[in-house]
Write a structure and sequence with these properties.
The chain has two helices and five strands. It is α+β, with helices and mostly antiparallel strands. Strands 2-1-5-3-4 form a five-stranded mixed beta sheet. β3 and β4 form a beta hairpin. The chain is globular and about 45 Å long. The protein starts with 6 loop residues before the first strand and ends in a 5-residue tail after the last strand. It holds the Pfam family Urm1. Belongs to the URM1 family. This is Ubiquitin-related modifier 1. Keywords: Cytoplasm, Isopeptide bond, tRNA processing, Ubl conjugation pathway.
Length: about 110
């Protein structure tokens, strides 16, 4: 059996209704592997998104969070330690222990 990968603690929040996709919980304490197992690169936001889909997304309608290509659905704002992810490199932004990542849906039905 393979050894468990080293992990780092990060905080992930889902706002604007996204919590309904993740067990109706707004805040999650995640133990994210330090390295992406597919290529051994340091964990980044793109890896976090795929990790969340695989391990934490409990709703059958995954398209509310990610598109078929694995990228976030348009209309979701991402903050990394309170900064817009567009300023941090988006999916390529490397994560560190203790980081806080917030996903906010800006799409509202009516």
């Amino acid at each position: 059996m393979a050894p468990e990968p080293e992990t780092m603690p990060i905080s992930v929040d889902f706002l604007g209704g996204l919590d309904t996709l993740f067990s109706n919980k707004t805040s999650h304490a995640i133990s994210l592997p330090l390295l992406n197992p597919s290529d051994s690169s340091p964990a980044n936001v793109g890896f976090l998104i795929s990790y969340l889909v695989k391990h934490h997304l409990k709703h059958p309608r995954t398209e509310f969070f990610v598109q078929d290509d694995g990228h976030l659905t348009p209309g979701i704002l991402v903050l990394i330690n309170e900064a817009d992810w567009e300023l941090e490199g988006e999916e390529e932004c490397e994560l560190k222990a203790g980081d806080k990542v917030v996903f906010v849906s800006t799409m509202h039905g009516g």
